[in-house]
Amino acid sequence: MTGTDRFFCADAARIRGDSLAGTAPRGAVWVLVEYRGGWPSNGFDGLDIAPEVKAHVWSAAHAVRARILLVRRLARPRPDGPGRWAVLHYERNGAYRQRWGTWTRDEDLVEIADALQNPGQLDHPPVVLVCVHGQHDICCAVRGRPVARALSERWPNLVWESTHVGGDRFAANVVLLPDGVYYGRLDAASAVEVVGEHLAGRVQADHLRGYTDLTPPQQVAVAALLARFGPAARHAYTVTDTTRDGDDWRIRVELHAPRPTAFDLTLHARHTAPSRLTCRGLAPHPTVGYEVTSIKSV
Asked: Which residue among 190, 230, 258, 269 is least crowded, i.e. fewest CB within 10 A of its CB?
């Protein structure tokens, strides 16, 4: 690369062949704050709001390991009226709970702390987030914005632009909440197909980064089964056992329908050579990928 060339982490990851599966960050609770102004590179932490309000919300979110994301609608001009906030809970039994509110003053955001302690309602539609956070990583903006436009045209009431969701090198990234499902390397056409299938109850292996309630090797195991046997509902597969021996893993996964079946998958962890993983990060870092070496029904 010459001094005049610009480094794009998503292009580099494609050239290296970085694996998508197993790269969804862990999480079961998310806080969304609609913010229509410019987004700081560090998202909510960088907002110019009352310090005591920010500290209160951050402390409450940290206590339950919730992630705080800034969001906005794609519509131009920006909508008037109060901004919205939401607390989204994923529960392992398949229940998805949401609580929504509005804010016009910084002090209104303290309600988020109470919402984090109350699961919320079950009857809200899903949320589709598209990372477009160019201040954090240019690939997220360049690749994310066309995806956000395409999805917003198809599902205007579900789609939000979002700050950094993790995995810049896999842009464009889309997150389905409260499902806790990450997809990556999307473009406008593939995003509409993947999200449409997901909303219809069919999770595809293509573009799947993983489920946020699972560890990386567990995510890889489920993705391998989806790739072999075809799309399935979000909770069609359940990880029931995980054992590790050094760099080797055995994951047992149960399929609930059309008939109960259990699979044992063996995986081997491979450590990659250090590489630049983000557009802004100059220091190279290694990653860990997981190769599925066998799949056996039991």
From this structure: 258
